[in-house]
Amino acid sequence: MKPPPVLSDVTIEELAKNPYPTFDRIRSMASAVWVDSARIHLVTRFDDIMTVERNHHLFASTNPGSLMNKVMGHSLMRKDDEPHKLERAAVEPSFRPGVVKQHWAPRFRSIANDLINQFEADGETDLFSSFAAPMASLSLIDLLGFEDVAWEDIAWWSQALMDGVGNYQADPEISNRARRASAAIDQAIDHVLARHVETENPSILSSMAHAGHKHSREQIRANIKVIVGGGLNEPRDAILTTVLGLLQNPEQLAQAQANEKLFARAFEESVRWISPIGMYPRRVTQDTVLGDTRLKAEDQLGICVGAANRDTGHFEQPDSFDLNRTASRHLGFGAGPHFCAGTWVARQMVGEIAVPILFNRLTNLRLQAGNSPILRGWVFRGPIALPVRWDR
Amino acid sequence: MIRFVFVQPDGSEVPVSATEGDSIMKVAVDNGVDGIRADCNGSAACATCHAFFAQELLCELTPMHEHENDLLDFAATDRQPGSRLSCQVIVSRCLEGQKVKLPDTQ
Ligand code: HEM
Q: Does A333 touch chain B (CB under 8 A)?
């Protein structure tokens, strides 16, 4: 049993460009590896992550020093046990797969069609800005129960909060933006809360207002912020990655076009292949052992599901996109008590609606030759541009 | 300890001894029983610990909440009258000697 080895020759920029070679390296070194530039112990093996997620008393989400608490308030994502359970149960009615299918799917469908109407005649576009970002943003506005909010606004609030959460160097500009976003979200909540208290409906704000466990205003604000921060970029990025995977693998696209159910499989595979959340944190609560590595109380762990999802112990040829995989269990939605609350929303929005509608309406959709998609990020990862063309 | 049997889709049986108060899902995972994925480890969020119970047993098991009822409609193997998410069913005396069947896929 050894203490975590140290990796000191990897920069954050290298990780952001392409984290997978470093993930492979770390996976072959030890169960947990201290990465100097990231200032955290990274955990990259599938089985170790399952161990972590099955022992939340040893590996907690509660983290008193977390920047997230400072930026958003103390949300359910940084709680454990009963306090977490109560707040999680409060939002669940909005996220149930049946509610998603009956109530949210028609909304998502009309958002997708309206967006495509706006650029269909152009013959080319960057799907990031014209489709994926507004699709995810407009859907989230509805889900939350916001009114009179522009999609560009919720998109910058989301980005400002995420930047604030990652602001370890305490850049005052970034802190300032995050504070302004936070204040704007408080206002957006105050604007509609009375209506949601009065009339019960499937939105997240209504679910919180009518929860069996009475929420304080602070709890509502913190949990809405965590969803603004964490419910926008992932479906946006998953839309783009699913489209990219299919466009780069025409035989799989043909398969999906012949059998539309396979778009859902393509979505699931894209979340494995390029996990939108590549890493999330946990805190070690007492001296312990993980796999082959000794850990100390208060060690901070970065749980790299983006790496586990390419663990050769679980996936054959993990670097390729393959919707026909038989072993399809992945960790892209996390595992354990904090397993993504928005899983069924994302499945419906991306795999059943946004991606199939796009391929149905844009004939011969293809990548632009000589204008390659650009992917970026390791904590969050996805295409930051996806220029495409189709037949007019 | 309560003794009962998991039955795999191919008919093979895995006998287990379980502690009252644990969930059926936890018993399966702790005993390395194939066929229960339990992606969310018991938060009733993923519908990958689907199992079939004898119908006459259902009234004696932990009651089903609306959330579980909704999720079961979306399990990978079609729901049947004896369907439950095994993370929501607690081991109790009524399971002694019973068979818990597992679906083809989770
Ligand atoms: C493809 C899309 C998505 C992916 C890959 C994804 C991934 C994840 C992951 C990995 C976690 C676990 C984080 C942790 O344990 O610290 C998580 C949690 C969460 N996600 Fe998602 N997510 C997606 C979409 C969404 C959407 C659309 C929403 C809401 C509208 C959402 C809401 C949440 C919430 C509220 C949590 C916290 C759950 C808790 O702490 O109990 N997610 N997500």
A: yes
- Interface mutation vs chain A, best among B30, B70, B104, most A CBs within 10 Å: B70
Tell whether B76 is within 8 A of chain A (Cβ): no
Q: Which two tokens stand for residue A73?
A: 């308030």
Contact residues on chain A for B67, CB-CB shorter than 8 A: 89, 92-93, 96
Domain count, chain A: 1
**Total domains present in chain B:** 1
CA A380 from chain centre, in angstroms, equals 7
pLDDT tens, position by position, A207-233: 999 998 889 999 999 999 999 999 999
Is A201 part of a structural domain of the chain? yes
CATH of the domain at A62: 1.10.630.10
DSSP assignment of B43-81, as one string?
Answer: SS-S---EEE--GGGGGGSPPPPHHHHHHHTT-SSPP-T
Tens digits of residue pLDDT in A302-348: 999 999 999 999 999 999 999 999 877 899 999 989 999 999 999 99
Residue A124 exposed, middle or buried by CB count within 10 Å (0-12, 13-18, 19+):
middle
Domain that holds residue B81: 2-101
Q: Which pLDDT belongs to residue A361? A: 98
Residue B106 within a domain: no
Asked if B43's CB is within 8 angstroms of A98's CB, the reply is: no
Q: Is the model's pLDDT at A384 over the cut of 80?
A: yes
Domain extent, residue A210, equals: 6-389
Per-residue pLDDT tens digits for A6-29: 999 999 999 999 999 999 999 999
